[in-house]
Design a protein that fits this description.
105 residues; single chain; 3-stranded antiparallel β-sheet; flat; 5 helices
Length: 105
């Protein structure tokens, strides 16, 4: 896999979403965090499963700085996930899939 292919692949597997609820102990309208990172791994049959950051980085052999750089780089602003139909909008759908996998084990 070339470096360019790797950056596109990582871009497809990581999502940057706005926080759902603003929190700050002193001021309710302010939050220190504006967005969250969601990490996914993809199976051979193209099913995506949400994983923690550490598992994602260790599985693919990359570090957090590379992921952030590739996601914020202007060359990779095209949303490949939408083009390939890979966006998972419903969180409960992902939870249900994980439960099915655990049952199969």
């Amino acid at each position: 896999m070339s470096w360019e292919q790797r950056t596109v692949y990582i871009d497809m597997l990581v999502q940057k979403e706005e926080t759902k609820r603003q929190r700050n102990r002193k001021d309710e309208d302010k939050s220190r965090r504006d967005f969250i990172w969601l990490y996914f791994l993809q199976t051979l049959n193209e099913k995506r499963f949400r994983v923690c950051k550490i598992m994602f980085e260790n599985t693919l052999g990359i570090n957090e700085r590379s992921v952030i750089y590739w996601k914020n780089d202007s060359k990779h602003k095209v949303d490949y996930r939408e083009q390939l139909g890979l966006i998972v909008n419903n969180h409960t759908e992902g939870v249900k899939d994980r439960k099915e996998i655990l049952i199969e084990l």
